[in-house]
């Protein structure tokens, strides 16, 4: 028996510039068919001496938001393992 599930991840990126500095924020949202919904956040800051390459800030902010989301998802899994086995999850 094979089962397929779809989890959708939504990515929103926003940039704010002030003078020579810029900040890029990213928010990623995960919504699973079972109703699980998590949101990860990330930020990148352009130093005034850096070359103006907005895509680099976007890449960094999104990667940090995905990392935050990943951490949250691992925590949910660890709680589910503990709830269903009575044993804490030990990452390997």
What string gives the helices and strands in order? EEEH
What general form does the structure show? elongated
Question: Uncertain spans, ≥5 residues at pLDDT below 50?
Answer: none
Q: What is the count of helical runs?
A: 1
- Give the oligomeric state: single chain
- Global mean pLDDT: 90
Q: What portion of residues belong to β-strands? A: 35-45%
Q: What proportion of the residues is helical, as a percent range?
A: 25-40%
The chain-level structural class is alpha+beta
Q: Termini distance?
A: 28 Å
**Rg to the nearest angstrom?**
17 Å
Strand arrangement in the largest pleated sheet: 1-2-3
How would you characterize the largest beta sheet? 3 strands, antiparallel
Number of strands: 3
Would you give an account of this structure?
- By secondary structure, the chain is an alpha+beta fold.
- The protein contains one helix and three strands, in the order βββα.
- The protein has one helix at 54-85, and strands at 7-18, 21-32, 37-46.
- The protein has a three-stranded antiparallel sheet.
- A hairpin with a 2-residue loop joins strand 1 (7-18) and strand 2 (21-32).
């Amino acid at each position: 028996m094979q089962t397929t599930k779809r989890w959708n991840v939504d990515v929103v990126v926003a940039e704010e510039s002030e003078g020579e500095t810029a900040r890029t924020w990213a928010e990623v949202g995960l919504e699973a068919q079972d109703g699980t919904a998590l949101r990860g956040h990330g930020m990148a800051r352009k130093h005034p001496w850096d070359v103006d390459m907005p895509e680099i800030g976007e890449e960094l902010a999104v990667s940090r938001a995905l990392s935050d989301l990943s951490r949250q998802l691992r925590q949910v899994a660890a709680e589910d393992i503990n709830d269903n086995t009575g044993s804490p999850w030990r990452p390997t």
